[in-house]
Amino acid sequence: MKEMKPAEAVSHFRNVCAHAVEEQDRLLNRLLAQNAHTEFGERYGFADIRGHEQYCRAVPLSVFADYDDSFSRIIRGERNILTADPPVFCTISSGTTGETKYIPLCREDVEKHHLYVDRASPGIIQEALPQYSDQEIFGRIFHLCEFFYSDQPGGIMNGVRTGVSYCPALWGGPVDCSCYTAPEEILFPSGMEDMLYAKIRFALDHEDVTAIHGVFVQRMVGMFDYMIRHWDELLSDIRNGTVSSCFPVRDDWKEYLRKTLPPNPRRADHLAALDRTSLKEGMLRKLWKNLRFIQIVSGSQFRPFDEKLELLAGDIPLHGYMYAASESLFGIPPCLGTMGDYVLLPDVCFFEFIPEEQMNDPKDFLTFREISKGSRYELVVTTLSGLYRYRIGDVVEVTGFFNAAPMVRICYRKDLIISILDERMNTLQMENAVRMFSGKTGIRVNHFCVTGNTDAEPPRYILYLDTDRDLPPDAQAVMDRCLCENSVGYTEVRTMHELACAEVFRVRQDTFSEYQYFCQAKGARMEQAKPIRVLTREDQIAFFNAARENG
User: Fold this and answer.
1) What's the pLDDT tens digit per position in 111-137?
2) Residue 245 lies in a domain
3) CATH number of the domain enclosing 493
4) Domain of 468?
């Protein structure tokens, strides 16, 4: 694919969106034709399929488990299984279960990611900030993402989805890291490392940060909370060129930081002069006066973190980065200042939509032609890298259209629906219930998660809350009412006394931050960390039970 300049990539984006329906038809027909003689294509008769209706009849819906064997064979070196094009990269995902997954990507998949995320999105941001030069916008980036590359036994490079952006550069040689606050050694460690402290130190040492790039909004908000909690120690380290003992940094990295970050008393004095009591309000502009934008992934499930980031950001515009998973890129924001709404890319995936009410028994598989604004759908994708009619697990709401391409907002993960007795409460309903509980009690809930106790008679929900003060004596009754008000299914099973009143426990401060390190110790990758909402494993439940402050 020809390398486009940002302005050319923006023009391409708008053009394919203007002809979104036709682009979808072309993409489906092309993928069927070019993969007709693969093992998968011959199994399902790709050569004889004409159009979406025949595609639905011939090819069943799929989930990740359906590809376990094919992915393993591809990684071992077998070819022409799912796609005619060979893989060039494997994305790593911890998924929702914590189990590491490897997903082979074809070159076109990588190139389309580069086109939209690394060319079109910067072009959109440039258009929105015409008063600034490229250097003033992208010249000094505080990059929170971790990039870790290794090779599969067959020699295919693998890493996380955000690392796909750097594949074209890596194929051509070393990556130019001169625009980042942190050096290459910190951005691309040789092994799986938590580089949070190092990245904070390099960013704080620079006065001229122009942009902040991250992945999930909760990770960014957590990082700034971490900075505020350790403000005195960070200022001491900046002033003296040291690494305080409270930070979990390996000895060799401590020595590296001492050599590369000499004492900077002038910067420490400037930061120390800030009013710490009001630091959270417009904090980022106070730290870096030349900050032009913040790039971060958001969605309905991240709403409490969005509000915290907006307080930190003040007047700095936010950009929603991308809607993507390890399996594929799906969409990008249409403009700077858009958080949580993503335009589905017509030439990257073929999209199908199952109406929300049919998710458990799909009958209608809609395309761009049939979906409507304000309706919710389970998303099904056919990707450039050989996932066919794949249920990614996201339920989205169509919030509008950009030209002819739909804009969607992620509402919840279908596979994270809590359902002990078929009440089918989803995470959005749970979040609304917790928000209502906060309003009724006056208690701020910083984080929460839930599990089901099916051993109790009758069974019940158990909620773990990180709150700003102790829970009132009637916390369980209040929470139970809030759950009823947000879920008809929950109300029905409570009315029939089939489900007992929910139990509510306050956990120690920083429990949710400590949970990320708990996951990391078990091999999970920090850059894949998402807000924990539903506890499904015994070790997760044991961790939060150990952190309870009451009961």
Assistant:
1) 999 999 999 999 999 999 999 999 999
2) no
3) 3.30.300
4) 417-546
For residue 395, is it within any domain?
no
Cα separation, 418 vs 432, whole angstroms = 14
DSSP state of 356: G
CA distance 86 to 107: 8
- DSSP per-residue codes, 189-217: -SS----HHHHHHHHHH-S---EEEEEEH
Query: What amino acid occupies position 86?
Result: P
Question: Whats the size of the chain, residue-wise?
Answer: 551
Note whether residue 497 is domain-resident: yes
What's the per-residue H, E or C state across 129-178?
A: CCCCCHHHHHCCEEECCCCCCEECCCCCEEECHHHHHHHHHHHHCCCCCC
Mean pLDDT, contiguous 10-residue spans, the chain (551 residues) = 87 98 97 97 96 97 94 90 93 56 90 94 96 96 74 68 65 72 82 78 95 83 85 96 91 93 96 88 93 86 77 92 93 92 97 94 96 97 98 94 96 76 79 94 94 84 94 95 90 82 93 82 58 84 90 47
Rounded alpha-carbon distances, angstroms, from residue 161 to 95, 104, 166, 330, 515 = 12, 11, 10, 12, 23
Residue 192 in domain = no
Each residue of 102-133: b (16+ CB within 10 Å) or e?
Answer: bbbbbbbbbbbbbbbbbbbbbbbbbebeeebe
Task: Check: CB of residue 544 under 8 Å from CB of residue 535.
Answer: yes
β-pair partners for 157: 89, 151
**Angle in degrees, CA 286, 291, 295, rounded to 5:** 120
How many domains are contained in the chain? Answer: 1
Count the alpha carbons within 13 Å of 151 in the hemisphere toward its beta carbon: 5
